[in-house]
Design a protein that fits this description.
It contains 9 helices and 10 strands. By secondary structure, it is α/β, with parallel strands linked by helices. The chain is elongated and about 60 Å long. The strands form 2 sheets. A 5-stranded parallel β-sheet has the order 3-2-4-1-5, sandwiched between helices. It has a 5-stranded mixed β-sheet with strand order 6-7-10-8-9, sandwiched between helices. The longest helix is centred in the first third of the chain and has 13 residues. Helix content is 31%, strand content 21%. It has 2 domains: 111 residues, Tetrapyrrole methylase, N-terminal domain (Cobalt-precorrin-4 Transmethylase, domain 1, 3-Layer(aba) Sandwich); 125 residues, Tetrapyrrole methylase, C-terminal domain (Methyltransferase, Cobalt-precorrin-4 Transmethylase, Domain 2, 2-Layer Sandwich), CATH 3.30.950. The protein starts with a strand and ends with a helix.
Length: 253
Amino acid sequence: MSGKVFLIGAGPGDPELMTLRALRMLQAADVVVYDRLVSDEILAMHAEGARLIPVGKAPKCHTVPQERINEILLEEARGGHTVARLKGGDPMIFGRGSEEAAYLNAHDIAVDYAPGITAAQGASSSSGVPLTHRGLATSVQYVTGHRQADKVLDLDWKRLADPDSTLVIYMGVANIGQIAMGLMTENLPGSTPVLAVGKATTPDERRLISRLDRLAADVREAELKAPTLFIIGQVVSLYSEKALDQILEQAHG
């Protein structure tokens, strides 16, 4: 009898940001197939005796191709195992979760989901910068800052350059200069504030406040590396170290 696969969002990094459903599924699995960005603290919460299979990817370094990951999940499920496919953030937001689910469904393998807090929400909560705010941003847009196989970044710059919206860029460090130029070409002001957050919600979190017309240079100077998320829009004007200190004090009681 075939097993099943749990498609689990581990959240942005802080173990306390995992959902109860995600934790329950992780602890019910006898095989854990996990990504590079899943923290050791989260991985340590697996069931005793569970077998761990790393399939992590880094920029321009896919040691385990996506096709092989799909095959591993299928092989383990067909072997009768309960498989936890553990992904950082939310598996359905730039996480290829839907691709893996489609592959498994096509081979008659049952898939169940545990959503995770996505990196944008994690960065927002750790920095105190909201993604929407009355009078500043009435909507938020999520977009990936790279294309599969390093194809041309042909985003809809006109739609994204909305001064009344917050724009969140995932996986955009390598192309942030091109992204900033594309937005300014469609008349998003160069003075638009930007918050860059690296490794959000983890002990190694880094933050950089910049503006659109200086962003690429500031990122190079700060030597920000992946995973770094960019929040672009007027909500960044609300960033305050003092307010953040108060948030952290309340969080830690």
